[in-house]
Every structure is written in C-alpha cells, then in structure tokens.
Amino acid sequence: MDAIALLSSDHRKIRILFGQYRRAETDRRRHTAADILIRELSKHVAAEETVFYPYAAKVLEPEAVGRPCEISSVLKQDLAVLDGHRTAHEDDAMSMEQLERDLAAHIEEDEQKLMPRLRTCCDPGELNRLGARLDRAVRAGPTHPHPAAPSGAKAAHLTAPFTAVYDRMRDRFHGRPTI
User: Fold this and answer.
1) Digit-coded pLDDT (tens) for 90-112
2) Residue in 53, 89, 91, 83 with CA at minimum distance from that of residue 163
3) Which H helix or E strand runs over 123?
C-alpha cells in the first residue's frame, strides 16, 4: 500500500475509534475505546514524524511540513492529557473533544494539502516504498504520546525504539488492550 493510502486508512480507522468512544454505553467500554485510540493515534503520529514528514520535507520543501508538524505536536499534547486522565480514571470527555477537533485539523492539513502535492510529484514506486517504511514505523512505534521526547526524524529514530519497548511493557503491566 502506498504511503498516502496507508495514512488515509489510518485516519479513517482513528475516526471510527472516536465513534466507538462516543457510542460506548458503559464507562468500561469508553475506557477501552480511549485506550485503543491513544495507542493507535500515538503510533500514527510517531510514524508521520519519523518517516512521512521528513520525506515530504525532502521531496517538496521544508516549509510544506511546518503546519502538519505543528499540529502533530498539538496532538501529542492532547494525547498526553488524555493518557493522564486514563491513568487517573478521570472523566476525559473534554479532552476527547479537544483531541477530535485537533485531529480534524491534522487530517485536513494532510489529506487536503500535503498528500495531493506528494501524489503529483512522486512516482508510485517511491510512494509504495515509503508506505512500507511507514507501516513498519506504525507497527513498531510508541503506544503512548511522548511530547517531551526530542522531535525531528534523527532524534526520534534514536528514542522511538526505547519508548516503544517501554510503552509495550507498561501496556502489558496495566492490561491495556492491544487490538
């Protein structure tokens, strides 16, 4: 699957997770839906920051990914707040609403502006190779937000494997769903 199709598919999956959260009839189901959403969106954002945005900055120009990177940073902050609520078992409806609004801006920026530009200037083989790299990054990525972690592709490549292992151990210890 090419990178653009992969990320668009992730965006759809994350929107579905928001719907599952909203439709949850019990606190336990809402809690589970929020945990899964945190996990999947954290992996998605990390993969975009380490693979997709650096590639786009090389192919297009660095300024083209400025706004998407800013929104990703906001998403990580939103996720960190929500993740903190999950740990404290607090009501997270307000945090979830903020996250959903910021995610909508993220998706619009990616799908309406950045992705069409990449689609026109990259050949399909290159997008397929990038998609394979993104897929590996999503699978191996951190399952919780780490807004204080160094940003940028090089720093993230150094820290992401360690944070991912830590996150998976933490998830297992707390019995969090893994989908």
Assistant:
1) 556 778 888 999 999 999 999 99
2) 83
3) none
Buried b (16+ CB within 10 A) or exposed e, 70-84: ebbebbbbbbbbbbe
pLDDT at 88 over 60: no
**172 has a pLDDT exceeding 90:** no
Q: Is the dihedral of CA 19, 78, 160, 32 positive or negative?
A: negative
| 145-150 CB contacts, 8 Å cutoff, 24+ apart | 145/38, 145/42, 145/45, 145/75, 145/76, 145/77, 145/79, 145/80, 145/83, 146/76, 146/80, 147/73, 147/76, 147/77, 147/79, 147/80
Which tokens hold the place of 108?
């619009």
Domain boundaries, given as residue ranges, for the chain: 3-174
Give, in order, the Cα–Cα distances in Å from 105 to each of 15, 147, 179.
Answer: 13, 18, 26
Residue 120 is which amino acid? Answer: T
Query: Residue length, the chain?
Result: 179
Q: Say which residue the tokens 């975009």 belong to.
A: 48
Return the CA Rg of the chain.
Answer: 16
H-type alpha helices, 48-152: 53-59, 66-88, 93-108, 115-121, 124-140
Tell me the whole-structure pTM to 2 decimals: 0.84
Q: Which of 54, 80, 60 is nearest to 151 (CA)?
A: 54
